[in-house]
Amino acid sequence: MFLGQYRHNLDDKGRLTVPARYRELLEAGAFVLQGFDRNLMALTAPAFEAMIRQVNQMNMVDPHTRELKRLLFSTADRIEPDKSGRILLPQFLRELAGLESEAVLVGVGDYFEIWAPATWEAQFAQLQDADANAQRFAGLQLSAEEA
């Protein structure tokens, strides 16, 4: 499971160091693609393939389905950590997420996100608003009980 937050520099070639505990989860391969919040998403190969299976079962006549497929497939790229634990982020994805010299990697359970620091700080500030969280998440029926 991808947990926590990590801040790392991008080198001149667009390579980003992945935390050691994340690298273990990427051994079977992974994909990076545009996220939904001006960020990037990095998914293990099995998680990406499961998501793609779901998308491929959607109704192609629906224009939202076609837009989602374009978003996911046109921005997806396979990633593999090198011997130093770095992944290469394609230039167009770095531009989409506003990444320059630094990035924040954020664990989100079955995948992790890659954010430009200023964008993440704004997102994280929103997440600190307890009253807004109570309203936003009230209908999700979140429970700590085991199923």
Could you explain the architecture of this structure?
This protein has six helices and eight strands; from the N terminus they run E-E-H-E-E-H-H-E-E-H-E-E-H-H. The protein has 147 residues and is an alpha+beta fold. The chain has one domain: Chemotaxis protein chec. Strands 1-7-8-4-3-5 form a six-stranded antiparallel β-sheet. Strands 2-6 form a two-stranded antiparallel sheet. Strand 7 and strand 8 form a beta hairpin. The mean pLDDT is 94.
Please give a handful of descriptors for the protein shown.
Chemotaxis protein chec, alpha+beta, 37% helix, 24% strand, two-stranded antiparallel ribbon, 147 residues
Strand ordering within the main sheet: 1-7-8-4-3-5
* Low-pLDDT ranges: none
- The helicity comes to 25-40%
Strand content: 15-25%
Tell me, rounded to a whole number, the average pLDDT: 94
Quick rundown:
With 147 residues, the protein is α+β, with helices and mostly antiparallel strands. 37% of the residues lie in helices and 24% in strands.
Secondary structure elements and their pairing?
Layout: E1 5-9, E2 15-17, H1 20-23, E3 30-34, E4 40-44, H2 45-56, H3 63-75, E5 77-79, E6 86-88, H4 91-97, E7 102-107, E8 111-115, H5 117-127, H6 130-137
